[in-house]
Write a structure and sequence with these properties.
218 residues, three-stranded parallel beta sheet
Length: 218
């Protein structure tokens, strides 16, 4: 289903993937200095499972700016049924296009973030009714530039977020053209290791090679 900002928990598969992610990081001997997550339960629990595997009890920082993209009126709908109703091409356009938004979600809907307790402390004027990938990108990059960019010079940072917020960050870091970003697939629960030098990205690779997706060259 299109979940977006709806605060659902991990599935059993998600918990298993998070545990494996932690094991992959541990086996590489990577020590994490700072942890970040969105406000959403599935990202928080992914991070906490990883920390448990790493035996690391550091506090982590939550930011709504790295929440999943808000899917507007598509929120809660079954993706397969929606594709049958609207057509595969239209649904792909909604999911992967750069600046096309679905219809806004009614503020009366129980799925609207203003009606979800998780977002009580997010300023009302910042809460969207729907978003394009471009909208998601804008808030993710604001977070990155303010909170992360200057810290990656001498710290290992782990970000637990979502498909579209991570795609947005990759677009920025890999300098991916907005026409090409639709080609970037983000696998769930597979740590993507990014190496920087003087805040510039030098290399990127997935730790689980069997579940890796092709990265657009940067």
């Amino acid at each position: 289903r299109f979940t977006g900002w709806v605060d659902v928990d991990l599935t059993d598969k998600g918990r298993s993937e998070a545990k494996k992610a932690g094991t992959l990081i541990k086996n590489k001997g990577i020590s994490i200095d700072l942890y970040y997550s969105s406000l959403q339960l599935r990202a928080n629990n992914t991070l906490e499972i990883i920390q448990n595997v790493l035996n690391d009890e550091k506090d982590y920082f939550k930011f709504w700016q790295i929440n999943e993209r808000h899917y507007g009126a598509l929120t809660g709908l079954n993706k397969i049924e929606t594709a049958k109703k609207l057509g595969e091409k239209k649904v792909h356009e909604f999911r992967r296009s750069w600046n096309i938004k679905p219809e806004p979600l009614s503020k009366k809907s129980p799925y609207h973030p203003i009606n979800i307790e998780t977002y009580n402390n997010v300023p009302k004027e910042k809460i969207p009714d729907c978003e394009s990938l471009e909208d998601t990108y804008e808030r993710v990059i604001q977070f990155y530039n303010k909170e992360v960019k200057n810290k990656i010079k001498d710290k290992n940072i782990l970000i637990s977020a979502h498909g579209n917020s991570i795609r947005s960050l990759c677009k920025y870091l890999f300098n991916i053209d907005k026409e090409k970003i639709s080609e970037l697939e983000i696998p769930t629960g597979n740590p993507l290791i990014l190496n920087f030098e003087n805040s510039k990205l030098q290399s990127a690779k997935y730790l689980d090679k069997n579940r890796a997706k092709n990265l657009i060259k940067f």
